[in-house]
Design a protein that fits this description.
The chain has about 280 residues and is of the alpha/beta class. The chain has a single domain (about 20-285), classed as Alpha-Beta Barrel (TIM Barrel), CATH 3.20.20. It is about 40% helix and about 20% strand. The protein is built from nine helices and ten strands. The chain has helices spanning about 20-25, 55-60, 80-90, 110-120, 140-160, 175-185, 205-215, 240-250, 270-285; strands at about 40-45, 65-70, 95-105, 125-130, 165, 190-195, 220-225, 225, 230-235, 255-260. The strands form two sheets. It has an eight-stranded parallel barrel, surrounded by six helices. The chain has a two-stranded antiparallel sheet with strand order 8-9. Helix 5 crosses helix 6.
Length: about 280
Amino acid sequence: MTLAPSLAPPPAAQSRTAPSSRAEARSLSSPSTLPLSTLVTGICSVTLRQHDVDSVVSVAGAARLGGIEWGTDVHIRDAESALHARAATLSAGLDILSLGSYYRAGTFGDFESVLNLASQLGAPRIRIWAGGSGSADADAEYWQAVAGDARRIADLSAERGMDIAFEYHGDTLTDSVESTLQLLHSVDRPNVGTYWQPAVGVSDQEALASLRQLVGHVSGIHCFSWMPRIERHALSDRKRLWQAVTDVLRENGRQADMMLEFVAGDLADNVLRDAGFLNHIALGE
């Protein structure tokens, strides 16, 4: 499979607990006047859905990203693929950021298989979906089912030392700030948080307002530039938004993974381009 040209050796993994000496040195040239927070840059494997596991790792390393969220849509389907991805990721000096599952809370389905995949992968966190209905269309019974199932799987995950994060997405109960906060309050588990991403069609100001209200619960950011609706652009085409996102995270002292999700044309070259911008604003490279 042909990848982007001039793939450089992968860098050492970015620290998930404290800024490394390399990161501290970068702070002198950070584009933000705020101190560096514990931000890790990465990529969701779904961004390179047409590439195999080893190719995803190669692109992530060449892009000087810190880690990978491995999705169960294509790449992580069974124990063999999970163990392969784990070994390849760690051998390249990258972190395993999370397992991007497609489990929908409220179904009360088999979550043990998801936990087993996460354990085999070595993932500290599992991404799930808050049901399959928008908050405006959900009745009280539906809310109770989603929250109840989320509590169940949160407790199962806690037994294995794992966190849970909701996808912040339309057509789920986490489709707005208010509904996300309501669900998190209802679930009320210390190992449950949320991801964040700019909602489709909103202005930079509206997107940032939503992040500021949710930031205390945010463990991961899905980074992309879609405008005016779902048309894909370079991440830097919304430079002001994404620089402000890193500022909000720093202001609140958040440890968060900033993960590229979807690039123009699904091209490895565009991963390298967008990763360069992301590393610049998040890490000062």
